[in-house]
Amino acid sequence: MFRKQQGFLGVLFLGMQKDRAVLTIWRDLPAVEALAHSPTYQETSAQLDATGLLVGQTSMEVFEVQERFLDPQTLAHLLENTNPGSSGHPSCSFPSQRGMKD
């Protein structure tokens, strides 16, 4: 469904025990904003809701990229190979978020 959206660049489906998150990467903010109005997104969301698979409140947060570093070779290797973790899948970490002074 994401691949059909204008401005879509990539997605990671994340999970830790029963918690799930989807990290999507977009060309720009208008592409993100257009997602909410996309018929394929609305249809997929309705189908997921109907399954009862998801519990709790669904939320979306939008962040702008401030700095970046993605080594293409390392990233490709990580995504193609498993790690010795319990699930056998690559892992991501998100340090706790803190605000910044004005």
What is the count of β-strands?
2
Low-confidence stretches: none
- Beta-strand fraction estimate: 15-25%
Strand order of the largest sheet: 1-2
**Amino- and carboxy-terminal Cα gap:** 38 Å
Main β-sheet description:
2 strands, antiparallel
Mean pLDDT level: 79
What structural class do the secondary elements suggest?
alpha+beta
User: What overall geometry do the principal axes of the alpha carbons give?
Assistant: globular
Helix content: 25-40%
Summary, kept brief:
The protein has 102 residues and is an alpha+beta fold.
Keywords:
102 residues; alpha+beta; two-stranded antiparallel sheet; 3 helices; globular
Reconstruct the topology from this structure:
Blueprint: E1 8-16, E2 19-26, H1 29-35, H2 39-51, H3 72-80
Antiparallel strand pairs: 1-2
Structural account:
With 102 residues, this protein is of the alpha+beta class. The chain has a domain at 2-65. Helices cover 28% and strands 17% of the residues. The chain has helices spanning 29-35, 39-51, 72-80, and strands at 8-16, 19-26. The chain has a two-stranded antiparallel sheet. The termini are far apart. The mean pLDDT is 79.
